Structures are given as structure tokens and as C-alpha cells.
Amino acid sequence: MLNIVIFGAPGSGKGTQSAKIVEKYGLDHISTGDVLRAEIAKGTELGNTAKALIDHGQLIPDELMVEILASKLDALSGSKGVIFDGFPRTIAQAGALKSMLNERGEDVTAMIELDVPEEELMVRLLKRGEESGRADDNEETIKKRLVVYAEQTAPLKDWYKNDGKHCYIKGSGELDRIFADIVAAIESKI
Ligand code: AMP
């Protein structure tokens, strides 16, 4: 199986590039942000817990996220592989993902880091907020999300370097050039 972690700050293009990777490789796509937004839309207890945290730019507790991810993985059958979008976001989640995959005789194939300068992230997210109405794409929440990213999520770059899976991609510029770089990085890890 081809298991890809697509990684980067909010607004780095994870969702956009995931769609292209899914199309090329026929992978299943697990976006934890989409899962949480679906729970919020359904008004479930999990959704209510998530909404309060998401609106403040905070992360959902690891234990809860790991449980959600495990149930999504268990629901797959005959999968060619998975693109993990928005997970892991902490070192604890990265360790849990590795254990979950190892238990299934699998591992992460590649971790693709999309690197985009912070000023550009802010511009992209404010635009997305205007277009999509996503409640957490407002200036105050974006700033908090970027701090949370720097403190809790960015350390995963070194974690995946140590695991031999990290691939650096310049995430600003032409979409097709970024995608071509991603494909080359994936192919180098297969
Ligand atoms: P995203 O759509 O990936 O930007 O996620 C939106 C929000 O959902 C994040 O700002 C977090 O509050 C929450 N979230 C999504 N994935 C995770 C995760 N793996 N761990 C903790 N919180 C998450």
C-alpha cells in the first residue's frame, strides 16, 4: 500500500494537492478536518466538542483524534493506500499512526512537507475564508492556528526525517510544478 502523509501549515495546499494525488494513485483520502466538520454539521457530541476547539484555533486532543483515525482506517477495505491529510499534527499522533499502520503490516511511505511562507499562508486563508465561509479562516483564528502549527506540528518534520520518510516540497508557485515535485518525491520513496 502507498501511505502518504501530506503535511504543512494551514493554507499550504494540502487539500488541493491531496485531490491530485488521489486521482493519480487511486488512494483513499482521510482528512481529519473534513471528518470533524462533518461531525459539526451533523451536530453530534464529537462535533460540539470539536467546534469549540476549532473556532479557537486549538487542536482536538490526541486520544480523540487517534480514535477517529483508527475507525476511519478500519472502515477501509481493499484500499490501494491512504493519503493522510491533516493528521498527524503532534508527535504523539505520528507515533500512534506508525503503530496503527505497523499493526496492519504497513508503514508511512512518504511524508510530503509543503513549505509556504507565512505571509502567503495568511493571504491564502483570508481569501479561502471569504470564498468558503469557513469559520476558522478569520485573521484572529488563523494567527492562533499558525502558532499552534509552529509549536506542536512543525516538530514533526524532524520526526519524519529521523524515520527516513520526509520529503521537502516548495509549496508556493505553480500548482502543476508543485504536483510534479510531489510525484517525484513519492516515486523516490516507493
Ligand atoms: P484542517 O481542515 O486540517 O485545517 O483542520 C481544521 C481544524 O480541525 C484544526 O485547526 C484543528 O482544530 C482540527 N483538527 C484537524 N485535524 C486534527 C488533528 N489531527 N489533531 C487535532 N486537531 C485537528
Task: Explain how this protein is built.
The N and C termini lie close together (10 Å). This protein has a single domain (2-189), classed as Rossmann fold (3-Layer(aba) Sandwich). Helix 4 (62-74) packs parallel to helix 5 and helix 6 packs across helix 7 (139-153). Helices cover 59% and strands 14% of the residues. It has a 5-stranded parallel beta sheet, sandwiched between helices. It is built from 9 helices and 5 strands, in the order βαβαααβαβαααβα. The protein has helices at 14-25, 32-42, 45-55, 62-74, 91-103, 118-132, 139-153, 156-162, 175-189; strands at 2-8, 28-31, 81-85, 110-115, 166-170. The structure holds adenosine monophosphate. Residues 10, 32-33, 36, 53-54, 58-60, 65, 86-87, 89, 93, 136, 145 line the site of adenosine monophosphate.
**Distance, first to last CA:** 10 Å
Spatial shape: globular
Order of strands side by side in the largest beta sheet? 2-3-1-4-5
Helix content: 55-70%
Radius of gyration: 16 Å
The CATH topology turns out to be Rossmann fold
Strand tally is 5
Count of folded domains: 1
What is the CATH C level class, in words? Alpha Beta
- Proportion of strand residues: 5-15%
Low-confidence segments, given as residue ranges, are: none
Structural class: alpha/beta
Heteromolecules bound = adenosine monophosphate
Second-tier CATH architecture? 3-Layer(aba) Sandwich
**What does the main sheet amount to?**
5 strands, parallel
What is the residue-averaged pLDDT?
A: 97
Number of helices: 9
Order of helices and strands: EHEHHHEHEHHHEH
The named CATH superfamily: P-loop containing nucleotide triphosphate hydrolases
